[in-house]
Design brief:
By secondary structure, this protein is α+β, with helices and mostly antiparallel strands. The protein is 47% helix and 14% strand. Strands 1-2-3-4 form a four-stranded mixed sheet, with helices on both faces. A two-stranded antiparallel ribbon has the order 5-6. The protein starts with 7 loop residues before the first helix and ends with a strand.
Length: 196
């Protein structure tokens, strides 16, 4: 690969670019934390997928990515450098393709990727992320409740089938089931010998 044309000022500026804990990222985390949300930082949401999210809400399965306007080609603020233009266009378009691939891989695994641009105000981004997390938590809770109800129906049906196979009469609503260990209550309220 041939050396890229650059200047000492550009090299110095690019070497100072942070990939983690940027100002916008820290501000967003502070706003989310202040709103009561708890999360992991710089984690891989899905094992086997070598993509790291900036903020991860595990139980809600939400991964937040804070994207820089230059590096990810923001539609509002992206600039295309004139020097080494071919290199930078390929680099930024490659980042965008990787972002789309990451979103698709996370979706396949049941996660939702939320993209926050660096130019968005952190407070507004935090509200948007909090709404997504709350909605996802509610959806997961509703699905869990539906699974529990379905299991209860299946368990009730299986118990009724077992009673039928055993030759027992199905229980009537409001009637206590009869079993060999029931105690008969005589008139007058005294318990007598076991029923039989």
């Amino acid at each position: 690969m041939e050396a890229l044309e650059s200047t000492p000022d550009v090299r110095a500026r690019m070497s100072r670019q942070k990939s983690k804990d940027t100002k916008i990222e820290v501000a967003l985390r502070k706003a989310l934390h202040a709103s009561g949300l708890r999360f992991r930082v710089h984690g891989r949401p899905v094992k086997g997928v070598r993509r790291e999210a900036d903020i991860v809400f595990g139980p809600a399965r939400v991964a937040v990515f804070v994207d820089g306007c230059f590096w990810h080609g923001c539609p509002e603020h992206a600039t295309w450098p004139r020097r080494n233009a071919e290199f930078w266009r390929a680099k930024i378009e490659g980042n965008q393709a990787r972002d789309r691939d990451t979103d698709a891989r996370l979706a396949e695994a049941g996660w939702l990727a939320v993209r926050v641009w660096e130019h968005e105000p952190p407070a507004e981004s935090a509200v948007r992320v909090a709404e997504v997390v709350a909605r996802r938590k509610a959806e997961r809770a509703a699905r869990a409740a539906a699974r529990t109800a379905a299991r209860a129906v299946v368990a009730g049906t299986a118990a009724a089938d077992a009673r039928t196979v055993a030759g027992e009469a199905p229980a009537v609503a409001g009637e206590a089931p009869a079993s060999a260990g029931d105690v008969r209550v005589e008139e007058g309220g005294a318990a007598g010998a076991p029923a039989g």
